[in-house]
Amino acid sequence: MIEGLKYKNIFLVGFMGAGKTTVGRVLANKIGYSCVDPDQVLEENAGTSISAIFSEFGEDYFRDLESRTLESISAGERQVIATGGGVVIKDRNWDIMKKSGLTVYLKAPVEVLYERIKDSTNRPLLEVENPLERARELLDSREHLYQKADLIIDSEKLSVREVADELIRILNY
Ligand code: S3P
């Protein structure tokens, strides 16, 4: 907490399909924060899509841009920041997030997540032969990282609005 404000920023973390952006919009609207999607900012700055960045320059290059974008956004305040699903893999990103706000993990089972993202075309990590299997492996390898968040919300059975309301209740906004 910082003086005069509640949390400077609220970072939503979680796997692809966790609802970070949709929950972020509703939550931000309810508490008078702005909602920022770092992936969208990154794409605007780069002038191209995440998929194109992955295929032209590779994942490491994307991860570097992702950290820089997160860092510059984190300098602002009163923002709900809907991070990309892989933000949790770098210690540097945790340092940035923990320094500038509260982290919230939106948790759901892989089957639910997959159902929400299976038709999307801008998720290069899942452009493989068996995307459900890939999603399961990725989530398994990241679960312990998502658990580093300050708060964990089990979003499986909740609507977007219910998740936002639950957060407002817990955080006392
Ligand atoms: C990624 C998640 C994506 C995007 C990129 C990599 C990941 O964001 O940052 O495709 O590593 O899980 P969303 O979680 O918003 O889909």
Sum this structure up briefly.
The protein is an alpha/beta fold and 173 residues long.
Keywords:
single chain; 173 residues; alpha/beta; Rossmann fold; five-stranded parallel sheet; 5 strands; globular; binds shikimate-3-phosphate
Description:
This protein has about 170 residues and is α/β, with parallel strands linked by helices. It has one domain (about 10-170): Rossmann fold. α1 crosses α8, α2 (about 40-45) crosses α4 and α3 packs across α4 (about 60-75). A five-stranded parallel beta sheet has the order 2-3-1-4-5. The longest helix is centred in the middle third of the chain and has 16 residues, at about 60-75. The protein has helices at about 20-30, 40-45, 50-55, 60-75, 90-100, 110-115, 130-145, 160-170, and strands at about 10-15, 35, 80, 100-105, 150-155. It is globular and about 45 Å long. It is built from eight helices and five strands, in the order βαβαααβαβααβα. Bound molecules: shikimate-3-phosphate. Shikimate-3-phosphate binds next to loops.
